[in-house]
């Protein structure tokens, strides 16, 4: 009975590895790609800045609307609170009964 060792069945690659040192052509291509990415990043940052400015303006508008709506809620609770205190009668009905 013969046994096989793992090293007996493993074939080592015969091809040599390509050099990992970049050539001047690949460096130029990589630099060109980085420049394009930087240009895109700059454009995206400019868009983001404009959107943030718009958002700040809209936030101020929302703050004003919030104050307006809050005032409306307070006024409506005062009106509805008066109706609830009179037993569900309107102010005119309450004045008629008081006479």
TrEMBL record:
Region listing for Disordered, in residue ranges: 1-32
One Pfam family matching this protein: DASH_Hsk3
Gene source species: Friedmanniomyces endolithicus
Superkingdom per UniProt: Eukaryota
Protein name: DASH complex subunit Hsk3 like-domain-containing protein
Entry's Gene Ontology BP terms: attachment of spindle microtubules to kinetochore
PANTHER family for this protein: DASH COMPLEX SUBUNIT HSK3
Entry's Gene Ontology cellular component terms: DASH complex
GO molecular function: microtubule plus-end binding
């Amino acid at each position: 009975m013969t046994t096989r060792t793992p090293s007996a069945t493993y074939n080592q690659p015969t091809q040599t590895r390509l050099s990992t040192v970049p050539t001047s052509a690949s460096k130029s291509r990589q630099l060109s790609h980085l420049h394009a990415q930087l240009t895109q990043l700059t454009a995206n940052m400019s868009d983001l800045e404009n959107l943030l400015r718009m958002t700040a303006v809209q936030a101020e508008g929302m703050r004003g609307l919030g104050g307006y709506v809050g005032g409306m809620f307070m006024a409506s609770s005062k009106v509805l609170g008066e109706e609830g205190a009179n037993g569900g009668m309107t102010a005119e009905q309450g004045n008629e009964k008081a006479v």
